[in-house]
Every structure is written in structure tokens, then in C-alpha cells.
Amino acid sequence: MGLIGHTLVQLADNIMVGQLGTAELAAVSLGNSFVFIGMSLGIGFSTAITPLVAEADGAGNKQDAKSALKHGMVLCTLIGLSLFGIIMLSKPLMYHMEQPSEVVALALPYIDLVALSLVPLVIFQAFKQFSEGLSQTKYPMYATVIANVVNITLNYLLIFGSFGFPKLGIVGAAIGTLFSRIIMVIFIWFLLRNKKKFNDYVTGFDFRKIERKVMRKIINLGFPSALQMFFEVAIFSAAIWLSGVLGKNPQAANQIALNLASMTFMVGMGLGVAAMIRVGNQKGLGNFKDLRRIAFSIFLLTFILEIVFAVVFLAGRHWFPTLYLDQGDLSNLVDNSEVIMLTAQLLLVAAVFQISDGIQVVVLGALRGLQDVKIPTWITFVAYWAIGFPICYYLGLHTELKSMGIWIGLLAGLTASAIMLYIRFNYLTKKLIANEST
Fold first, then answer.
1. Among 417, 408, 151, 410, CA closest to 272
2. Which of 62, 188, 272, 410 is 20 to 30 Å from the Cα of 336, by its Cα?
3. C-beta atoms surrounding 212 within 10 Å
4. 382 CB-near residues (< 8 Å, 6+ apart)
5. Helix, strand, coil percentages, rounded to 5, for the chain
6. Does the reported pTM lie above 0.85?
7. How many CA within 13 A on the CB side of residue 77?
8. What is the DSSP-derived secondary structure letter of residue 98?
9. Please, which residues have CB within 8 angstroms of residue 92's CB and are 6 or more apart in sequence?
10. CB atoms near residue 2 (< 10 Å)
11. Quick one: which of 102, 187, 191 has its CA closest to 146?
């Protein structure tokens, strides 16, 4: 639920902005494609905190858990600021990506504020990953619920100019996102500080004493994890850009389908966090048979849930797109009808890749719990960029499949990733059990 909360921010933005028109929805899509790449690096890097805290918790070492949080906060703050700067420098690229000019003009002011919101978001991730490492996942969830209430309220007031507030359009959506993420950080810090079991962990930091050994350990775990998430998010961003080459309506349809798929992906990602925590606990205890049993139980649960989501996507593929667009807007009736038709086609493919996407993210979480990050990084690169992207590019731009072709490429990359990561986890856990027996 905590992870879905992040996606609900985008869902609220997309549904409300969609009422303005397909160009505005495409602009949000284009702006977020840059931000999501930065977000993937920040969130991916922060995941290094969870297995370190989980292992320390399993071993009963409270000081190591606090140290992981302190050093993780320092790194996350620096990363958030760096990502904001990089995105600002990257904005001129929009003019050279063959995107619709009206979409670029709308996206530029939007991206300024949403890029800035990465700073509080990545800082929040440090607290979130720490809390989850102690198996306390509900507190970050509370923070995201509060953030969504703030975001939806500000969206309503600022996008449409309700109750005398200025009508700012998609810039209003960006302001809502920024303020909701700032409140998210403040809320979780106060929440953890005022809980007795967390107080010693989150207070009394001496930031003058930074240990190179701990920083190196987080970087060694976090950098490959960040690359893993980057390789996956980047191919979805590439799908947005390729859709933009096809036109604003394919880009808007891609955004709707991607937003819906992101909602269900977060369920798989949440189970991946559970796998990371429980595998990390068992690693700390040195109990590798239970580690494998627990991991495979989570894999099976994910598989069952993703099949349910696939059925929901198939059944609702014509209805879901209508939530994002104003069908009573006669001036945009032709564009809206085309976007609904294109989205329904994409959701056919999305229904199938739910299963691959869920399996690959949960197995990746289990591998992070084992602190095995380097080989999985290469696996994700090969799956998405040696297999998935060439298929996206060829089928999307050089065949009649167009948008469907792009998503078939995404399906191919996710399926390759799921298969190879599963083989890796199966090999490692069998090896650990064999070594334990001898």
C-alpha cells in the first residue's frame, strides 16, 4: 500500500490533467519520463538500506541498523540534489527528441517543480527503507496516505482554480506533487521520532562522524540496485519517447496504460520488499533452507496475484481509459476517442506482462536480500536493452504495430528478466544450502 501511494500521486495527476486535454496529458507523460529516470536511481540506491538493516535486526545489532540509516540519509540527500541538477541540465534535450511542439511547451514548466520534488522523495526513501528493514512497513504507508490527501486537495484547487485559487493547469499538479512530498518527509520523521521503539534509531545523529567503510558498503549495494531500477524505468521512458514520435495521442494512450500498469506493478514491488526483508533476516540467522522456502512462497503468491490483475486488465481495458478523459468535451472528442481505442489495445499486452513484471521484481527483491546485486544488474541490462529495446524500436517505428509493437518489446524484456533472475536465485540458494550441509 505504501508503494501504491507513490503511484496514486501520478494517478491523481493524470486523471485530473486528462480533463484538460490530450496535449496536457502527453506533457505530463513527457515531463515525468525524465523525472522517473531520476526517481529510479534515487529509489534504487536507497534500497541498499533495507537489507543492511534487516540483516542487523536479524543478528540483534541495533547500532549497525542506526549507522545504516544515518549514512543512508546522507547519501540520499546528496543523490536527490544531484538528480534535480541533472534533470534541469537535461531539459534542452526535449527540443531534439521529435516530440510534438505543443507538448514540449507545456512540459517544461511542469518538470521544474516535479524534478525539485525528487529531493524530499529520496530523503523519505531513506526513512522508508530503514523502517521496512525493521519489518515495520505500516509507518511509510501512513506517510504516503497523508501525502496523497495533500496532493489530491492541491490538485483540485490549483489545476482547475477552485474556490478562488489561481487556475494553473499542469503546473498546479506539479505544485501539489512537490508539497505532498515535503509533507511526507516531515510526517514520517515525526512519526518515527515519537515511537519509543524507533526513537533511539532516528535521533542523536552525529553527522560529523561519517565512516568510509559504511558509506562504501551502502554504495556497493546501492549503486548496482540503482542501475537495476534505472535499466527498467529507462526502457519505459524510452517507450514514452517512441510513442511521442508517433504523435500526441499515442503518447497520451501510452501514459494511461503505463499509469495503470504501474499501480499493479507496485503490488509486486511491495512483495519484493517483503522478500528482501525476510531473505535478509534469514541470511542474518544463517538459515538458508528457510530462506529458500520463504522466498518461493512469496514468488507463488506474486504469481497468483498477477494472474488476477491480468484478468482485471482484460475485462476493463475499454473502461479504464475513460476515467482519464472527459468524454463530454466535444472539442476533443476525436482525440479522446482515439486515445481510448489505443489504450485498450495496449492493455491487452499489459495484461500479459503483469505476470512477467511481478515475478522479475519479486525475485530481484529476494536477490537484494541476499546482497547479490552485481550479476542481477547485468541481467537487467541484457533483458531490457539488448532484448527489449531493439524490439520496441523496430516494431514501434518500422511496422504497422506502432504502439502495440512498443509494448510487445516491453513484454519481451520483462519476460527475459524474470526468467534469468529466477535462474540466478535458484542457483545461489541451492549453492548456499549445499555449503551449509558440508
1. 417
2. 410
3. 8
4. 416, 420
5. 85, 0, 15
6. no
7. 8
8. T
9. none
10. 20
11. 187
Q: What is the pLDDT of residue 326?
A: 74
Complete DSSP assignment for 213-232? HHHHHHHHHHHHHHHHHHHH
Compute the half-sphere exposure of residue 313: CA atoms within 13 Å on the CB side of its CA. Answer: 29
Asked if 222 and 76 touch (Cβ cutoff 8 Å), the reply is no
Rounded to a whole number of angstroms, the distance between the first and last alpha carbons of the chain is: 42
C-alpha cell at 165: 485559487
CA-based torsion, 105, 172, 257, 324: positive or negative: negative
CA angle 388, 394, 397 (to 5 degrees): 120
Give domain limits for the chain: 2-437
Q: If 0-12 CB within 10 Å is exposed, 13-18 middle and 19+ buried, where does residue 253 land?
A: buried
Identify which of 183, 146, 176 has the alpha carbon closest to the alpha carbon of residue 160. Answer: 176
Residues 289 and 419 sit within 8 Å (Cβ to Cβ): no
The reported pLDDT for the residue numbered 2 is 67
In this structure, the dihedral spanned by the alpha carbons of residues 26, 31, 37 and 43, taken in order and rounded to 10 degrees, is: -110
What the block records as the C-alpha cell of 183 is 509533507
Segment 6-24, tens digit of pLDDT: 667 677 777 788 788 878 8
Task: Please spell the DSSP secondary structure of 114-130, one letter per residue.
Answer: HHHTHHHHHHHHHHHHH
- Cα–Cα distance measured from residue 391 to residue 393, given in angstroms and rounded to the nearest whole number: 5
Q: Where are the alpha helices (DSSP H) in 59-203?
A: 62-90, 101-116, 118-133, 138-159, 170-193, 196-202
Q: At what angle do helices 138-159 and 170-193 cross, to 10 degrees?
A: 150
Q: What is the DSSP letter of 388?
A: I
Q: Which of 222, 239, 215 is nearest to 384 (CA)?
A: 239
CA torsion angle 302 306 309 315 (round to 10):
-150
- From residue 427, how far is each of 275, 369, 430 by CA, in Å? 17, 15, 5
Contact 118, 80 (CB under 8 A): yes
Q: Among 198, 61, 56, which residue's Cα sits nearest to residue 136?
A: 198
**pLDDT per residue as tens digits for the range 326-370:** 777 767 788 888 999 999 999 999 999 889 999 999 999 999 889
Alpha-carbon dihedral 378, 382, 385, 388, rounded to 10 degrees: -140
> What is the Cα–Cα distance from 87 to 122, expressed in whole angstroms?
15
| d(C-alpha 375, C-alpha 383), whole Å | 12
